[in-house]
Write a structure and sequence with these properties.
The chain is about 75% helix and about 0% strand. It is mainly α. The chain has one domain. Helix 2 packs antiparallel against helix 3. The protein is elongated, with a radius of gyration of 29 Å.
């Protein structure tokens, strides 16, 4: 038998058995009447906040998926180039020609790696900016709603 925790009365409660389908905060709080307090407006604001978070998360996930897809494309392209380069090296003649091809290959590979990194960074930045814009818009709207609620009193 476990001893009760005086600092956390819920320490021994099994919340996994709690049926969230029967928990309707809107219904429960909708009956609460506090003079000068618009519970419906608060509930609507929270619903909009959750919708904005969902939209921002969806935007972020889509950005991550786009980056992952582009990384797969870059890998596929790199593998094709490796095959092509292997064929070029097999036909190289003298050591000077081989060295020149290796130098040119290293330069191109470095430039391509930088371009790919820049492209991926821009994709991530764009996705983050779009997700942040959704949250920022909702915060601005929320402040306006709060301002209008206070002004109505």
């Amino acid at each position: 038998m476990s001893t009760p925790n005086p600092f956390n009365p819920f320490a021994n409660v099994d919340f996994s058995k709690f049926d969230m389908s029967k928990f309707d905060l809107t219904k429960m709080m909708g009956d609460v009447k506090i003079p000068g307090f618009d519970m419906q407006a608060i509930m609507d604001a929270q619903r909009k906040n959750i919708e904005a978070l969902n939209a921002a998360n969806q935007t972020a996930v889509q950005g991550i998926q786009a980056v992952a897809q582009r990384q797969a494309e870059i890998l596929s392209q790199a593998m094709s180039e490796v095959s092509s380069i292997a064929q070029q090296f097999s036909t190289a003649g003298n050591p000077q020609e081989m060295t020149a091809k290796q130098t040119e290959l290293a330069r191109k590979a470095f430039e391509q790696a930088l371009a790919n990194a820049r492209e991926l960074a821009e994709m991530v930045s764009k996705s983050n900016t779009e997700a942040f814009a959704i949250i920022n818009k909702r915060v601005t709207e929320s402040l306006q709603e709060l301002k209008s609620l206070v002004a109505a009193k």
